[in-house]
Amino acid sequence: MGRAKLVILAAGGTGGHLFPAEALSHALRAQGVRVVLMTDPRGAEFAGDFPADAVIPVPSATPSGLPLLGKIRVALEVGKGVLAARRIVKDLKPGLLVGFGGYPTVPPVLGASLGGTKTMVHEQNAVVGRANRFLSGWVDTVATGFAEVGGLSEKAQAKCRHVGNPVRPAVVAAASPYPWAGDDIFHLLVFGGSQGARIMADILPPAIQLLTPAERARLFITQQARQEDDGRVSGMYESLGVRAEIAPFFKDLPARMAKAHLVIGRSGASTVAELTVIGRPSILVPLPGALDQDQAANAAFLESRGAAVRILQPDFTPRRLASELSTLLAQPAHLTVMAENAKSAGIPDAADRLARLVIEVAGF
């Protein structure tokens, strides 16, 4: 109980892991708890605005898909990271270290655990990722974004505490009643993240072309597209007489999500959490090829709640998408129900819930 109120967060370079860590950091600092971020060198490049006293890079590497020699090199790099993390944790003496999944969190969690510091992981997805599955045997507590998480051992399930997926304050602020989608302009928001923008650029325009002129006349499309795809996507919408705004990145995505009548995107944990907190219907296309099929499970959760249409990527064709859009455009009342169903699955105070759990486990 005499430890300083300091918590180390360990999160890798992707937004899916850094966003919930950032939301937790805001909540902890509001409670007077100091925060230090431990990340891999790549993550440190993206963490310039992260709300923490310090950002400390620790060596890490990913073994996926590597030959034996590559895996040996990865093991040596991870070993270096574990030793470095153990030294840092010993110096800083945090009450708890919290990992957010992905391989960059393995050295910090192992280093802290081996040094006798309490540890926790937060699993954002409906199926546990491989890094967190491995770490679940080492940590004191497993915080979860979904009430049920597949892939955990019975022993790990006994450590689980459901808190939801923390979202950024901008997402909570954007939550608003669903805009009526009757005869007015129908706002369609399309984004795919770093690994999905290309397929959206390939499928959306030809799908819109298959709609009737009357359906197209109602649309205003806001779409994330890579710079190299911007011209052809904009050009096709223009030739179809469809109003659209195309950009590689939208800083105010939560506000645009709140304005949308329908969202089309991938089903990463952060996207699903934001859709439920803001309360918007969606067509979700899980990222294929993921070893854990986490996005497929996330999308299945929203589909089971009547909040989303899930389309697996092999089935995500212009004809299938046009059919779904045509059906939804004609059913504003159904879209409103989908929005309400999404909202009912949301946990807007997940960051505060996780902060309370962190403080409890740390013994502050």
CATH class of the largest domain: Alpha Beta
Q: How large is the radius of gyration?
A: 21 Å
Tally of alpha and pi helices:
16
CATH architectural category of the largest domain: 3-Layer(aba) Sandwich
- Principal-axes geometry comes out as elongated
Order of SSEs, N→C? Answer: EHEHEHEHEHEHEHEHHEHEHEHEHEHHH
Structural class: alpha/beta
**Which percent range describes the beta-strand content?**
15-25%
- Low-confidence sequence ranges: none
Order of adjacent strands in the largest pleated sheet: 3-2-1-4-5-6-7
Identify the CATH homologous superfamily of the largest domain: Glycogen Phosphorylase B
- The CATH topology annotation of the largest domain reads as Rossmann fold
Largest sheet: 7 strands, parallel
Task: Please report the distance between the alpha carbons of the first and last residues.
Answer: 6 Å
Helical fraction equals 40-55%
Number of E-type strands:
13
Average of per-residue pLDDT values: 90
Q: How many separate structural domains?
A: 2
List the helices and strands and how they pair.
Elements lengths: L5 E5 L4 H16 L3 E6 L1 H6 L7 E4 L10 H25 L3 E4 L6 H9 L4 E5 L6 H6 L5 E4 L9 H4 L2 E3 L6 H6 L11 E5 L6 H13 L3 H6 E6 L2 H14 L2 E5 L5 H7 L2 E4 L3 H10 L3 E3 L9 H11 L3 E3 L7 H12 L2 H13 L5 H13 L2
